[in-house]
Amino acid sequence: TPSEVSFILAENGNHKIYFINHKPIEIADKNFDYFKQIGFPEDKFYLFVRKYLLNISLTTFEDEKLLTPYMLDTGEKKIEKNKVPPDKRREIKNVFLK
């Protein structure tokens, strides 16, 4: 379900879906609109720098970074860290610091 998705990473026309408590999966030849069509609510996911679709409820904004927990292929849990550029900080604060 979308609530279990930490983030979706777009690379080379494919999307790798990272989960909070499951190993990631890859989906070929889809775009971010596809995820909206299958039930990913726009108000719960945020498109960051054109390649990350982040789950707002699992992501925190801290020290000018977006931090999102996820699980690797190995089953190890990690934190994805995305530095927020200065021109996006106000927008990010409005989304993640409600």
Structure, explained:
About 15% of the residues lie in helices and about 45% in strands. The protein has two helices and eight strands; from the N terminus they run βββαβββββα. It has helices spanning about 30-35, 90-95; strands at about 5-10, 15-20, 25-30, 45-50, 50-55, 60, 65-70, 75-85. The strands form two sheets. The protein has a five-stranded antiparallel β-sheet, with no helix packed on it. Strands 6-7-8 form a three-stranded antiparallel β-sheet. Strand 1 (about 5-10) and strand 2 (about 15-20) form a beta hairpin. The longest helix has 8 residues, at about 90-95. The radius of gyration is 13 Å and the shape is globular. The chain starts with a strand and ends with a helix. The model has no long low-confidence stretch (mean pLDDT about 90).
Topology:
Blueprint: E1 5-11, E2 14-19, E3 25-28, H1 32-37, E4 45-48, E5 52-55, E6 60-62, E7 65-71, E8 77-83, H2 89-96
Antiparallel strand pairs: 1-2, 1-5, 2-3, 4-5, 6-7, 7-8
